[in-house]
Amino acid sequence: MIGAIIGDIVGSRFEFDEQPKDNFELFRPKPQCDYTDDSLMTIAVADAILNGKSYQDKLHEWGRRYPNPKGAYGGMFAQWLADDHPKPQNSWGNGAAMRCSPAGLIASSLEEAEELGQRTAEVTHNHPEGIKAAR
């Protein structure tokens, strides 16, 4: 999970602009490097797991608490956050795969990790490809 967040911050400056070179400085000052929605949603998943709360509630809570991460939220996910009673959107985007690392952290078997990964995805990314990516 820490690696996922570090990777998110290091890669944040490459998401929309320059491409990484073979040798590059890992961390740059803000605004070049900063946390993105992927870090926030990873933390939300961990919060849900550690505190026995629903993934939907924690994703919603963290997304609304931090509405302006670097790079912003994707369009469909921003709509999901704005909805007071959000439903899965049949998304096959990569957001579910980007936030599922806490499931692997607590799972005691591959099967359990896959099941938890699926549960972290299906509240927003219930398309088979979105679920497959998180599993």
Structure characterization notes:
This protein is mostly helical. The chain has 8 helices and no strands. Helix 2 (37-51) crosses helix 3 (55-65) and helix 7 (110-122) crosses helix 8. The two termini are 15 Å apart. The model has no long low-confidence stretch (mean pLDDT 91).
Estimated radius of gyration: 15 Å
Number of helices: 8
Helix and strand composition category: mainly alpha
Tell me the total number of β-strands: 0
How many strands, what sense, and barrel or not for the largest sheet? none
Spatial separation of the terminal alpha carbons? 15 Å
Beta-strand percent range: under 5%
Order of SSEs: HHHHHHHH
Shape: globular
Unreliable stretches covering 5 or more consecutive residues? none
Keywords:
mainly alpha; 0% strand; 135 residues; 8 helices; single chain; 56% helix
Write the topology of this structure.
Elements: H1 2-11, H2 37-51, H3 55-65, H4 75-82, H5 95-99, H6 101-106, H7 110-122, H8 128-134
Helix pairs in contact: 2-3, 7-8
